[in-house]
Amino acid sequence: MKSESEVVVRPARNLRGSVSLPGDKSISHRYAMLAAIADGPSRLKNYSTGADCASTLGCLRTLGVKWERKDGAGNVLEVQGSGVSLAAPSAPLDCGNSGSTIRMLSGIVAGQKFSSEMAGDESLSRRPMLRVITPLTAMGAQITAQDGFPPLHITGAQLKGIHYQMPVASAQVKTCLLFAGLLAEGETRVEEPLRTRDHGEVALRAFGAQLERKGNEVRIRGGQRLRGIEALVPGDLSSAAFFLCAAALFPGSQLTLTNLLMNPTRARLLDILMQMGLRISVTQLEEVHGELVGTLQVEGGRLKGATIAGADTAALIDEIPVLAAIAPYTENGIEVRDAKELRVKESDRIASIAINLRAMGAQVEEREDGLKIPGGQSLLGAELESFGDHRIAMAFSIAALRAQGETLIRGSECVAISYPEFFSTLDELVER
Ligand code: S3P
């Protein structure tokens, strides 16, 4: 993001109100990509308003896909499916800040009859891509990249199915390979070391593909055709996490979140917050195109601590910044382990969290693969950096609500990557 802006966050008394969140980022990316290679039109309501999902749409347009966005009521995206064959791009595919765009879409362009270049901003250019380059090359694509970082130069090919054991637990990589597998000859089997979010599998089924899961392995047969869908994207649970954690900070809080994504592979945050003391009730639970959606009501209470490790770390990977940011206010603190992946996100999130917590006067132990943050601390308002990382900017806006004095966050415009409406919605919900 180019021009830097600052935001000042003042302490709050509690959070109250009802909100319906913009569409989930993970699902929006997948729906847009699959709608592009489906037969017939798709109509996607509540498509994510974030810049990352707009990057996916920009790339699809460069690949000849026709789509139209109606930003008014319902925020509808209409996509004319091109079928499996996209058009050769006349310019590099600009993935902006979006790891999801470059990793997942690489699986589709690798199976096309043309060459393409995928590039992004400075932060994206530091994110590891060998995790997709290695398996896509094994399937028959030719990919060059400097030391495994973007830009990627991809020469597409008739891919061949593989059996791949992923060394890193990554839903982006799993999805990339399932998309590539759809375009490949034969069967592709992807085995993940830990269960990661399954939106790729769920979305493929929604568009008519058949997949099989056995334990941690997913299988897809190549050559299946997709058909366009009409869908309502559920509200983003990772964006909701900021308000849920804010509510948890104040015993008087009462919050209702409607049309919220509750997919069990994403909802671990709800269990953790309940264990920590937040009272949560779920109503109007239903399945929409294979995704669980419901209304969540929460009330703040005591805030105990937590340890997040192993499979929980993978399941909570996008929520750890905000959990860590509120950790000093908990009774027993929060320890995060097995989280090396946080170092290769939009920023080095372990370092970003430690620097900002210390700037607010907290004690923090920073480890190579995690953090230990003692509880029972009070924080002081401070001048903080977003490090150009949307989840860091939002996480520390929440920590600031219970600090003494005001907090200034530099580079706050980066919240637009996933949630442009974040500050205005926070203002509506906060009581001071
Ligand atoms: C995502 C997977 C996660 C997550 C990212 C979205 C997805 O990344 O951090 O925000 O939609 O599949 P990794 O696949 O790198 O773990």
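^ shikimate-3-phosphate complex. The radius of gyration is 21 Å. The pocket of shikimate-3-phosphate is lined by residues 26, 100, 170-172, 175, 197, 317-318, 341 (CB under 6 Å).
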